[in-house]
Design a protein that fits this description.
Helix content is 47%, strand content 14%. It has 654 residues and is an alpha/beta fold. The protein has 3 domains: 127 residues, no CATH class; 119 residues, Rossmann fold (3-Layer(aba) Sandwich); 279 residues, Rossmann fold, CATH 3.40.50. The N terminus and C terminus are likely disordered.
Length: 654
């Protein structure tokens, strides 16, 4: 405690010394301005009969100016950060001081030369601004000279507000370590402009030539509003010029961070999507989440865990996290304790296929809102695990949804996939059936909705972490097909829009998130290689392995018989259509359950009957036709129709 006391006393002492020096210097400037005004007025020879006027004027001007500066807190600012805003405040302060002084002096001596008021005003203002500007200039020059030998010669890509901010920061903050040699901007109007002494040298197409001319090795990309295509183009220019590159975050990130110097970062693959931040009706969401008990299934998965984080922002009574993967659930629990200590996350180990365990959960915790994110989602793997996929994605979903209605849950939200549209895979058709049964359920007062979207970057099983591991291993990167395209969005954006769709839901809707334009997987692989500082085709090769069973070259977000209905949110749509509901849900589910228990090959036909536009892969059809009888024999020991050597099914989240 004594050390803290001494430190605080030292800081207070230093501040008092600083303020005393600043105020003393400013008073000297007031005296100098007043004296100079008289000298200029009388051509540097003050008449003897005017010396008394000088003394009287200084006796009025200096205290009034000092009081005005003090009242407007102009003595509290740091000179090294002086800006145009400070210059305007100084202008107002000097004008006010001049008016007040003139009224006082005029009341005593109406014959006092009026030109002296104007001269004193101008000189006092110019000296105040000039001294501050000179002080800031001296600091910046000192910072530029300090360590200039190890500063990296750098271009700023983007001559807008963000670029100017980077330029200012590089001059005033030696921690940045950049020597700015010029701006690069693709707007031809800006070519040749000089911004705060730094020239706009050319466009991105000239980057290689300009980098060689100015001996530059780095580029700071200062275009927070750049679209995905713009970022990919800029990355290509940097790669052609063999330059290292970093970017700055959006202004909102800087505001919530600890300054620009600590937030200049490598370009991330998320930047290449060019996705803008989701606009949320936070008041509406808070009104539906605050004080509620919220259940999230698949809570430790990519989407499930992000949903927990987003839900915690709106102060629920508690969050129930259902998950089979205990280690991932433990880590989520620890993270939530750190990020949201005021919100309790109750970890629950369980499987959505275990109806008894689910009933225990609903009985004990009585959730009022359910986000169902648990699912098997790996397309090629599910092609060889038909029954496990159906049991988990269809029967497991039905278990959670039916119990939600039985226990009076107010709202049930299921996370779906674009692979449910005209499905060609087991994963896709099971999600489509799940959508249909959720849209068809009418249990008590529970409102059921589904939210459909495409791939999320960095999710479990996503191509991005796979590609990164292949790059770290030295390649090659394996891509299934040159024209394979997918929709992508970031995990936080997907979870935020799910929350928004949930708040908008009335019951029975299938919400579809705006995914933008699909991206070629080979382009994504190329950009990831560039982001790693390597050259595609030279340092890391890209190989094509062929389309896997159940995969499509192009994903879709709606079927031909689904009609898009707009909502008031530009990134959320509603699809309706004849195929969105399942007749006789209970009997259909019992039939599917029976076929799974007996391991009947006719399950594929049943799925085809339920989803008319399902086009099974040749592998699934072949397996169904050639399935040996022994594999369909019920296990005599447990009385359930399960494969003796079948894979154990776990509830994994998105």
């Amino acid at each position: 405690m004594s050390a803290i006391y001494r430190l605080s006393r030292s800081l207070i002492s230093h501040r008092l010394i600083y303020l005393s020096v600043v105020r003393g210097a400013e008073i000297c400037l007031f005296l100098l301005a007043g004296l100079s005004a008289f000298l200029l007025r009388f051509e540097f020879t003050i008449p003897h009969d005017r010396k008394l006027d000088l003394a009287y004027a200084l006796a009025v001007w200096v205290p009034i100016q000092a009081l005005t500066y003090y009242s407007l807190r102009l003595w509290s600012g740091a000179w090294k950060f002086v800006s145009l805003h400070d210059a305007l405040r100084l202008l107002w302060a000097n004008f006010a001081a001049t008016v007040i002084s003139a009224l006082i002096i005029f009341g005593v001596d109406p014959r006092f030369p009026r030109s002296l008021y104007i001269l004193d005003f101008m000189l006092c203002y110019l000296l105040s601004v000039g001294v501050r500007a000179a002080f800031r200039m001296a600091i910046e020059v000192s910072n530029l000279r300090a360590g200039s030998s190890h500063r990296q010669r750098t271009f700023i890509y983007g001559a807008g507000a963000a670029g100017v901010m980077v330029l200012r920061e590089s001059r005033s903050n030696g921690n940045l370590g950049y020597h700015i040699c010029g701006f690069i901007d693709d707007n031809p109007v800006k070519a040749g402009f000089i911004i705060q002494g730094t020239r706009v040298l050319g466009s991105g197409r000239d980057l290689a030539q300009l980098a060689a001319k100015h001996d530059v090795q780095h580029v700071l990309i200062a275009i927070p509003s750049a679209s995905g295509s713009q970022m990919r183009t800029i990355l290509g220019f940097c790669a052609d010029a063999k330059l290292r590159f970093k970017t700055i975050p959006a202004l909102s990130e800087i505001i919530h961070g600890r300054g620009l110097a600590t937030q200049i970062r490598d370009v991330a693959v998320e930047d290449l999507l060019g996705r803008t931040a989701a606009r949320l009706d936070e008041g509406l969401i808070r009104g539906k989440v605050e004080g509620e008990v919220v259940l999230v299934t698949g809570a430790a998965g990519s989407i499930g865990s992000e949903l927990c984080r987003q839900i915690a922002r709106f102060n629920p009574a508690r969050i129930i996290g259902l998950e089979m993967a205990e280690t991932a659930l433990f880590h989520l629990q620890q993270e939530m304790k750190e990020l949201f200590p005021e919100v309790h996350l109750e970890p629950v180990i369980g499987n959505i296929k275990d109806r008894g365990r689910l009933r225990e959960l609903f009985e004990l915790h009585r959730p009022t809102v359910v986000f169902h994110a648990a699912a098997y989602k790996h397309v090629p793997m599910m092609e060889t695990h038909l029954f496990e996929a159906v049991e988990n994605n269809i029967l497991g979903t039905y278990n959670v949804a039916a119990l939600a209605g039985e226990y009076g849950v107010r709202e049930f939200v299921m996370i779906s996939s674009d692979k449910a549209v005209r499905p060609t895979s087991i994963m896709g058709v099971t999600k489509r059936v799940a959508e249909m049964l959720v849209a068809s359920l009418e249990v008590g007062t529970t409102k059921y909705v589904s939210v459909r979207f495409g791939n999320v970057l960095g999710s479990n099983g996503s191509v991005v972490p796979i590609f990164r591991r292949q790059i770290e291993a030295g390649g090659p990167i394996t891509v299934t097909h040159p024209e394979m395209r997918r929709y992508f969005m970031t995990i936080p954006e997907a979870a935020q829009l799910v929350m928004q769709a949930y708040a908008m839901g009335k019951g029975g809707e299938i919400f579809v998130l705006d995914m933008g334009k699909p991206i070629r997987i080979v382009d994504l692989a190329t950009q990831l290689i560039l982001l790693s500082g390597l050259r595609p085709g030279e340092d890391i090769k890209i190989e094509f392995s062929g389309v896997r069973p159940g995969e499509k070259l192009y994903e879709e977000l709606n079927t031909h018989d689904e009609e898009m209905v707009p909502t008031y949110h530009e990134k959320i749509h509603i699809f309706t259509g004849n195929g969105s509901r399942m007749p006789n849900v209970a009997s259909q589910i019992e039939e599917i359950r029976r076929l799974c228990e007996t391991r009947s090959r006719s399950l594929v036909l049943t799925l085809k009957e339920l989803v008319a536009d399902y086009n099974p892969s040749s592998q699934v059809l072949q397996t169904a036709i050639e399935q040996p009888a022994a594999a369909r024999t019920p296990n005599s020991q447990n009385g359930h129709g399960r494969l003796i050597e079948s894979s154990s099914a776990a509830t994994l989240g998105y």
